[in-house]
User: Fold these one by one.
Assistant:
Number 1:
Amino acid sequence: LAKTTQPISMDSYEGQEVNITCSHNNIATNDYITWYQQFPSQGPRFIIQGYKTKVTNEVASLFIPADRKSSTLSLPRVSLSDTAVYYCLVGLGSGYSTLTFGKGTMLLVSP
Amino acid sequence: NAGVTQTPKFQVLKTGQSMTLQCAQDMNHEYMSWYRQDPGMGLRLIHYSVGAGITDQGEVPNGYNVSRSTTEDFPLRLLSAAPSQTSVYFCASSSLGGGLRDEQFFGPGTRLTVL
């Protein structure tokens, strides 16, 4: 079971770039890395997924080093509406029952 | 498409009562799952299903039952509610057998309080 470690909270200001790092030392060979975003009183929402190197979409970028023991979610020029909890998810290597969300990182964006 | 729907949104039970949390999706997804979210604990997987007639346990299955008779529906049953089951419950679905290769779509959640 690939356990993840993220900072409990982060603070930023509008317009800044935010990088949230997730540690997953025992990631399995066939595991993917996925990030979700959750606003209060809502279900999580998929942001981005990757296996290695770099992935970019319209919302964020995901950087994965060669050893895959960590990953970094990068949010460019955050706004107040990016205030949310961000979850790093690693698993699937030995079956669907290994999916765990962990406690996530609470990002607070201030004006 | 309505996506993933859950009913009820709120529920209060007394200890020992039973109830069923409903979850439905209209995206023809094979994979469906139930999570619970407690303060400071993130989301924990309760049960999941990779297709009609196939279910399996997640991280915290005790006290919960599930069945999957159709692709669309995945109800979660509490046979004898306990205060420890007070939580917010989320249902999710995804295509292609589920898992991390496929985006999971979450419902709005059911907030359950057991007195």
Number 2:
Amino acid sequence: AQSVAQPEDQVNVAEGNPLTVKCTYSVSGNPYLFWYVQYPNRGLQFLLKYITGDNLVKGSYGFEAEFNKSQTSFHLKKPSALVSDSALYFCAGGGTASKLTFGTGTRLQVTL
Amino acid sequence: NAGVTQTPKFQVLKTGQSMTLQCAQDMNHEYMSWYRQDPGMGLRLIHYSVGAGITDQGEVPNGYNVSRSTTEDFPLRLLSAAPSQTSVYFCASSYSGYSYEQYFGPGTRLTVT
């Protein structure tokens, strides 16, 4: 069965510092990988995805993610965090099955 | 475009009652799905549809029914509500399949007492 793991429940970072939110996956075949963000009392919003091609994927709001096949990871990164980036971040992945599996989410807290 | 709309926003049910959560999209998307979000468990897929007239089960389908008679609508029916179905429910749609960006509705917060 496919699975997606987000090992950190919460990540704390100071504004202006780089941030990383970790994600590892286990899927059959070539993976489809996504990052979504959820603000309080809202639905999820798409940030970026990896299907094929360059291992570094750029997305919305200055976020990027690095696909690492050997480590089965897809970590989300941003060079300089903003207080407004504080939210719940979900990694999701799928393989040959036509279903998407979400991680448990990581709460990002950016402080001044 | 309204995107993905869900009604109601909030609902309280008693154990054993039935109800339908409504979901509609105006983007002519083929793929629609229902998720439930529970604390510490992320989002789990309940049912999905790859087009009108075609539905399939997700990870946690028990206690829920769906149908897709039109491209626009994808209602989720709770047959006999149980406290374990207390959750936040999200509907989502995408152009064609889960490999495309999914657009999520605002969610329905359901409490079963």
